[in-house]
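User: Okay, second chain of the day. Same drill as before: sequence in, structure tokens out.
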Amino acid sequence: MSGIVVFRRWLKKIAFAWRCYNNPPSIPSDTYQKYPSSHKFGGKKVLNVGCGNSVYRHPNVINLDAYGGSGVNLVHDLNKPLPFEDSSFDYIIANHILEHIDNWWDCFKELARVVKVGGIIEVWVPGDGGSSQLGYRDHRHIINQCSFVGLRGTHRNQANAWEKQDAANNGFVRDLIVEGSVRTRAIDFWWTQFVPDVWLLWATEHLRNVIAEVGWFFKKLPQLKEGETWK
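Assistant: Same drill. Structure tokens below.
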């Protein structure tokens, strides 16, 4: 890596740190809007659930929220079944919303129902150890990697009788796998710009209130045929 590249990266970090320091209420905006507002998702049909103010004003994106607002295309309670046919979307964004829903697992199954085979469900939630997990009054659940047991290829102890029954009844969730690994993002406070990445990664495992969020990308697979088993 050339010295010029390193120098430019440090300049970018300094500029970002200055914005964070001077505008703490508005940073980090990318926690709530993962893509620039101009992003068109390659023309794919997208469902942005629980969008709040993080909307994408494009014909191929449906911005759904329980509360109406600027850019919200559809007002809908995610505690109820989604008003879409099976396999309606190429891509679904569920950014910091599942932890708010009373029966988030049923909502997750609904997302799996309406995404197309080969499509992706992008999920972000507050990270482990952070006060925001249940500190906010509208946060109902702690969701982490253990919460998604029941997807294809996942299991718990074979002695767990509940899991066997759940696997027989969990429907479309059997057709999802985790695409890649769990993503983690450190809080974009000004000081994180000057801390070595290796320290931040260690802190995400062992300290409180360092991780802002954790994310998964779930891919929809063809349904299992009769006689087939999970792999």
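The radius of gyration is 19 Å.

User: Thanks, on to the next one.
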